[in-house]
Amino acid sequence: MQKEYYVREERITEKTEIEREIELIKAIIRTREELKNSNKNFEYAQDGLVDYFSYQIKANQAKLDYLIKIAKSKGIEVDMISDIKFTLEDEEEAV
C-alpha cells in the first residue's frame, strides 16, 4: 500500500498588507457588535444564563481590547466612515 500525499498545484498567495488591515478592521467591528449583543442579552438573562452572558461579555471585551491594541500598533484608526463602509460590505456579503 502506497502512501498518497497531497501535492499543491498552485502557489497560495499571501494577503497584502491592505487586505490584512481590512480584515483587522472587520474583526474589530464584528467583535464590537458581539459585545453589544452580549450586553443586551445580559440585561434580560435569567438564572444560569447570567453567568454565561457575563463570561461572554468579558471574553468579547478582552478580544476587542486585543484587536484595538494591534490596530493602534499598526497606526490604524477605525473612524465612522470605515465603520459604516465595512459594516455595509459585510451585510452585502451575507446576502
How does this model look, in words?
The model has no long low-confidence stretch (mean pLDDT 83). Helix 1 (17-44) packs antiparallel against helix 2. This protein has helices spanning 17-44, 49-73, 80-94. The chain has one domain (17-94). By secondary structure, it is an all-alpha fold.
A few lines on this structure:
With 95 residues, the protein is mainly α. The protein has one domain (17-94).
Alpha carbon gyration radius: 19 Å
* Unreliable residue stretches: none
How far is the N terminus from the C terminus?
47 Å
| Alpha-beta content class | mainly alpha
- Order of SSEs: HHH
Large-scale geometry:
extended
How many individual β-strands? 0
Whole-number tally of structural domains = 1
Question: Share of helix among residues?
Answer: over 70%
What is the averaged pLDDT score?
A: 83
Number of helices: 3
Strand content: under 5%
State the assembly state of the protein chains: single chain
Largest sheet: none
